[in-house]
Specification:
- Helices cover 42% and strands 14% of the residues.
- The protein is of the alpha+beta class.
- The termini are far apart.
């Protein structure tokens, strides 16, 4: 039978339900390094690069620069080629005249896609997109939209804006405009997110019971997370240390510091 693992599914649930799945250890510091390298490369092509998350960003492409490469499609192909040549891993790119459409385009041909949504093909892509898959629409909002017979992004975009404004809050109005090609969400290269918490974890495959090795890994995780605190010029006032056992039971302890610190 085919295995379906949805995004955000807890690791313990995957291990419990799909014993044949191999779970690889995480390496947040490596992801962070590649994320920063990606942003640095994109800044060679755009004056505005917004780091949206560790694995996603937006860049504003200039029309005059694109024309020098033969147009937006050629420009996007060149950027994609350069990034993947330098970093050695694949990326999916979406290009459109609004952020919400660009996000939709980037999800179309993962993990190695390049999709352009313009005025000619916009409705085709919207028709293929379930309403719950639109960036910014959560489960409750999707259910409410479906109650009114809105099942796809195209259904939503085709609704009268007065109806949307009557029934839904302002963030949903913005999505309506964005899906109809009217850009209201700008690319903000000045956004600096401050982490509310940082973590570093290690999965032991196969299961490990050697206390010395576990303590060594704990020390390494502490070093990693405090290195990141120092890079972000932050301090922590408490720490939580936990160990998840083979039966998925979690044991742990919280440590409260006398003052904020980034010293491991």
């Amino acid at each position: 039978f085919p295995v379906t693992i949805r995004r955000g599914m807890p690791i313990f649930e995957i291990k419990r339900n799909y014993s044949n799945v191999t779970v690889l250890p995480t390496h947040f510091e490596l992801y962070e390094m590649y994320s920063k390298k990606l942003h640095n490369i994109l800044e060679n092509f755009s004056d505005k690069v917004e780091a949206y998350s560790i694995d996603e960003c937006f860049a504003l492409l200039d029309e005059r620069t694109a024309l020098r490469f033969g147009g937006y499609e050629s420009f996007l192909s060149y950027i994609k080629y350069e990034i993947q040549k330098i970093l050695g891993i694949t990326y999916s790119f979406g290009l459109a005249n609004t952020k919400v459409l660009a996000k939709l385009a980037s999800k179309t041909n993962k993990p190695d896609g390049k999709t352009i949504i313009d005025n000619e093909n916009r409705k085709m892509y919207l028709e293929k997109t379930k309403i719950e898959s639109v960036w910014g629409i959560g489960t409750q909002t999707a259910n409410k939209l479906k109650f009114f017979g809105i099942n796809t992004a195209l259904d939503f975009a085709n609704k009268d804006i007065l109806f949307i404004k009557n029934k839904f809050p302002k963030p949903i109005h913005i999505l309506w405009y964005e899906l109809n090609g009217v850009g209201l969400l700008g690319v903000d290269s000045q956004i600096k997110t401050i982490s509310k918490s940082l973590q570093s974890t290690k999965s032991f495959l196969p299961v490990l019971s050697d206390k010395g090795l576990i303590l060594s890994e704990l020390s390494n995780n502490i070093e990693n997370v405090f290195n990141r605190l120092r890079r972000e010029k932050q301090v922590a006032n408490k720490a939580y240390i936990f160990l998840k056992q083979a039966d998925f039971k979690k044991i742990g302890a919280e440590v409260i510091f006398d003052y904020g610190t980034n010293d491991p």
